[in-house]
Structure formats: structure tokens, C-alpha cells
Amino acid sequence: MTLSEVDIDRLVREVLSQVAQPETAKPAAGTVSFGDRVISVELLRDRLTDARTIQVRPGAIITPAARDYLRERNIEVTSQADQPSAAGSPNMIFAAAAERFDLAALIPLLAGAAAEAEIVPTGAFMAVVKQTMERITSGDRRGVLFTEQTAAAVCVANRNRSVRAVQAGGCEEVREAAAAVGANLLVIDPRGRSQFEMARMIKEFHAAGPADCPEPLREALTR
């Protein structure tokens, strides 16, 4: 079959129109997006190959093992809201040394209060308190500790001059207690409290922001 000049002209126009079409934007090479609330090392191992950056949902929690995994491989962490996140420097620590308490179930209720957070694995009382203190004192961070032994936790934590732990009986007391000593550790007894009440207490503590120890107490509490 012989093509007419009209057919040839039509084919040329079609080819030119396809060549002129812009390419569809592609995701940045080496970036993997996660929509999970908790990013574990097992999750990373299953999905990361040559990735140099991961994107996580706002409020996602990266476990300590996952942060170590990312740091060892020089993988950058960013949020899906385009806000950078430092893989090794969470600004809030969550720890639990309490029986029958599900810390992971509380995290989704915290919204922005847990945008950059690290979970200390649940365990024996003294081990959890020690790990929490170490993480708070290793950087400019604050923490929330859930335990039934609140008085003991506050007493032990405050033996470290870099830790200023307080206990609050309810949401109304959190900011006042935090401001009184420039608290960087809030201790909560989860017994008899709903997840929503504890989430509100944490949000109040988070909203109070990092605070310096008041001048009249600084000599006694921080030196």
C-alpha cells in the first residue's frame, strides 16, 4: 500500500506531537516514602535498597534501632510535609516502665507532639529510668516516662543534675509544674487514666516548650 502525501503529513504531525509532550515528573531517585506510624528497622530492611533519603508521615515515630540503621547508612530522613528531620536527634523521649501499658497505642493520639520522638523500649524500672536519663542528657531533649512508681522515678531522675523531673496530677498542673523548675522530664502514672487524658498531658508538656531552670533554683538544681 502506497501512502499519500496527506497520510505522510498526518503521521509526521502525530510523531512530532508525541515528541513535544513533556515528560511526567518522577520521584527523586533514591527516595523511599513511608506512610507507617512507626518506622522499625525490620520495615526499613524490607524496603530500602539504594535509597539515600526516606520520607515519613508527620508524627511518625522512628525506633532507636531504626535510627541507628539509618545513621550507619547515611540515609537522610525528611517528612512528607517537606520538613527535614535529623535521624539521630529526636526532641522528645517516650519511655514506659509500667505493667499492662501500651505505649505504642498512645503515639497516634499525640499529633505534632511526637513529630520527632524516640521510644525507649519498655522494661524493668531502673533500666528504663537510666536509659531515659541518658537520652535526655545526651542532647537538648525532653522526655515523658510512664510508671506506677512515680515518686521513685522523680527521685532517681533528679539525682542527675541535668534532669529536672516533675510529676503532674492532671492536664491543668502540667504547665505549672514544668515551668516551676524548667522541667525536661514529665512522669505520669498511667493507672486510671485514659489514653486521651495522657495525650492531653503530653501535649501540654510539649506546648510549654523547652524551658531553662529558673535563676533562683539554677545553682541548687543544675550544678
Give me the secondary-structure topology:
Blueprint: H1 5-20, E1 31-34, E2 38-39, H2 41-47, E3 53-56, E4 61-62, H3 64-72, E5 76-79, E6 84-85, E7 92-97, H4 103-106, E8 117-120, H5 125-137, E9 142-147, H6 150-157, E10 165-167, H7 171-181, E11 185-188, H8 195-208, H9 215-222
Parallel strand pairs: 1-3, 2-4, 3-5, 7-8, 7-9, 9-11, 10-11
Antiparallel strand pairs: 5-6
Helix pairs in contact: 7-8
Return residue spans where pLDDT drops below 50 for at least 5 consecutive residues. 18-28, 82-88
Biggest sheet details: 5 strands, parallel
Helix content: 40-55%
Morphology call? globular
Look at the helices and sheets and give the structural class: alpha/beta
Q: Supply Rg.
A: 25 Å
Number of strands: 11
Distance between the termini: 96 Å
Order of helices and strands: HEEHEEHEEEHEHEHEHEHH
Would you tell me the overall average pLDDT?
A: 77
Count, helices: 9
Neighbour order of strands in the largest sheet: 8-7-9-11-10
Instruction: Report the sheet-strand fraction.
Output: 15-25%
